[in-house]
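thread: overnight batch results

M.L. [08:02]
morning all. the overnight job finished for the chain we discussed friday. pasting input first so we're all looking at the same thing
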Amino acid sequence: MTKLRVGIAGLGTVGVGLVKLFADPNSRLNEKLELVAVSARDRAKRRGADVSTYRWFDDPAELAAQSDIDVFVELIGGSAGAAKASVETALSRGAHVVTANKALLALHGAALAETAERTGAKLLFEAAVGGGVPMVKALKESAAGSRASAVAGILNGTCNYILTEMESSGRSFEAVLSEAQQLGYAEADPSTDVGGFDAAHKLTILSAIAFGTRPDYEHVRIEGIERVSLTDIRLAGKLGYRIKLIAKASLADGAVEMHVRPALLAYDHPLANVGGSLNALVVDAEPSGQLTFIGRGAGEGPTAASVASDLIDLAEGRAGFAFGRPLSQLATAPRGTPSERGRYYLRLLVADRPGVVAAISDRLAHEDISIESFLQMPVHDGPSVPIVLTTQTCARAKMENAVAAIEALDVITEAPFVMPVEHAGPRWSRS
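M.L. [08:03]
and the structure it wrote out:
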């Protein structure tokens, strides 16, 4: 039996993990696949796996161009440069590609899928979204017979770890982020993670598969967790909520609305108790109902195992279309408008003088928004004082208008911070 010949570009954590799987004589990878070549920037670097027996390429695009490489595994990362060039090279000559590169797929997924279909290659990317959690396969296969109306998830382990530790330890965002960097959970430049961009890349991919649309990263509304304070977490807890970074997409009347933002989740929400660096996905679909997937979203073992799963699917002839159906059947969905309704948490820092609360209440009332509660804040020294309130159910567009009007008041000393309040149920709020 002729085995598929594999080349790996990128020998970081995941690449080394995959090499280890190939080196295991009991691995299913070796039944129908053979690792023959590798590529990385530094040939002399010490790694946790022996790569000396494989052909070495300094240039990943050169590896991708080799006619005897049947499957090109891209683990370089990044939406451009060597990663994009090498994947395009492999697909253009008809070689299959397995990648863990969510940024590349979110920004260029449609073009890459088009090239794959034209040349007969397969493009697989299970490891790009949930690490060891088979979110892509679940949407492509397990939920294929259902009609998804919404997907929501905790898609970034770094943010989830930070928020979980802030709640459990009582430490600040800055302190926990520093610890996460020391432990290797966060990069030296953590902006892609804590800014919500990593989760947005993953949401783009998931929503394309779930709703049968082309990837559309440019239309994701993105807000990170940088402004979530320890005070927010403590007050949310007193109200019976937990703060999580939620990546969410919904389909209504043919339009797709996508956003990534921190939110208050009721304790009985299916995502509220997903702690640490775990990832999770909840899918609302008919007739199957609500589906939930939880597991480790990153790390050498889980992510390498997802790459291996794609390789085995290729070898056994189970690989389908990149986004679950032919590109010609993927709609270019219009951007959804923020017409959803929900409740909100609003934190303000205001000048300490009479009439402030009345002015804020007036701006909310002008948009027909009722205040559910004012929350007592800790003692605050200085010319400004914090105010926190929650609203009753209102239209999101009206809440945005009210926040803009409040921010324009001369008593506001820093930008308002607003988060949606989510509840559990078969149809959780789509705010």
